[in-house]
Amino acid sequence: MSPTRADLDKQPHEVARMFDGVARRYDVTNTVLSGGMDHLWRHAVVKAVDAAPGDRVLDIAAGTGTSSEPYADRGVQVVPADFSLGMLTEGYRRRPDLPFTAADAMRLPFADDSFDVVTMSFGLRNVADVEAALREFLRVVRPGGRLVVCEFSRPVVPVFSTVYNNYLMRALPRVARRVSSNPESYVYLAESIRAWPDQRALAQQVRAAGWEQVRWRNLSAGVVALHHAVAPVD
């Protein structure tokens, strides 16, 4: 079956198949569509995670492992996990030294208290049940462990917000047709970003799942936001 795009009901098999279809050119396409900002955002995530050698990090929705490589290169124990087998296959082809793991964010194949940090970049938006995923992240992290979520959000400058939304719905799909193996998947990308809650609403969802000390920091004027939280110690 040819690659397609998922719908906003986010059926897991449809989302996985969509990402399978774009795996080979996924990283290049993201760099083009973000104007190179994806590198800055990923650097901000690594800095926020602040993992040291000996720490164990779960990088969920890691795709081809681009987001996991900085941790591995620093001697951090990182597990890149994703539910797209196409992404995992492409990642293993590039970095066979990384322990790529097939995983559904809503039903993680890891024991309780397995990690010091759980991080997810640009993937929470694709999960069918966000609260279920956030609870799973809490289950697999140790008491006092941390969560770092990087996700598209709402620009905080009104004029820029209008320009950004016009880019999402008009320019992004056209650019994707030139660089992506499945441009229709980027129509879903634009739709899912517009439907995603803003920074404060996502923070409320994180708290509702049981995390504490929830806060966020805007990147690129709120185009992207980093949400931080800590697992209860008690």
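Next protein, fold it too.
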Amino acid sequence: MDDIEVETLEEPTLRNPVLIEGLPGVGHVGKLAAEHLLEEFDSEMVARVYSDEFPPQVGVDDDGVTSLACAEFHAVETDGRDLLVLTGDHQAQSHSGHYHLTDAFLDLAASFDVSSIYALGGVPTGELVEEPDVLGAVNDAETVDELTDAGVKFRDGEPAGGIVGVSGLLLGLGERRALSGACLMGETSGYLVDPTSAQAVLEVLETVLGFEVGYDSLEERAEEMKEVAEKIQEMQSQQQGMPTDDDLRYIG
């Protein structure tokens, strides 16, 4: 297998599409948000990207059928702008792999005439957050006011340490291709899957991109995670051993 292989499945015509990235990261915020879009809207898988930078493993579905690790692109038509949604179960395992894969992702996005990028992720707080803010970072200062109007917070020195992985490189490498990019990061504890934070990020996207989406399934998952969080808090009061802030400083 080549270092990177792209399997094209469909070639739909999209209206002024925007790239939405939701790969695994802190709290699985971006991945949850991207997958929720695919569940709520009619979507069509248009491409798979394979790479030896992904872990050497296959997934196994409920019927026992395997599939090689890959990233997936899905086309989504909404009431507002159409979306090209990038998601998957893995990120690259090396620094150079992140660069090479992000370049491949941008090449594929260019083939669909994508004009802007929204990378979705989480920013860890080290503690449970009931009403998460959405922090922003952009590669084009002209978009700050629009995102601020949509409720995004821009804070000095945050996220600390910058944005790593595909989410950060989409903005950095996208700027070199004259693509406007923003990263939307929902506040999250950093040690739980966080549907509430994913919903906060999606609500910003709704405002900015002009679509509407339901949240019933995310809210159900949030209730389940709330019960888990309450149990963790109960255990916290009885013993030490929760992750420290230093353990949680990763942005994805």
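About the second fold: Residues 126 and 221 are 21 Å apart (CA to CA).
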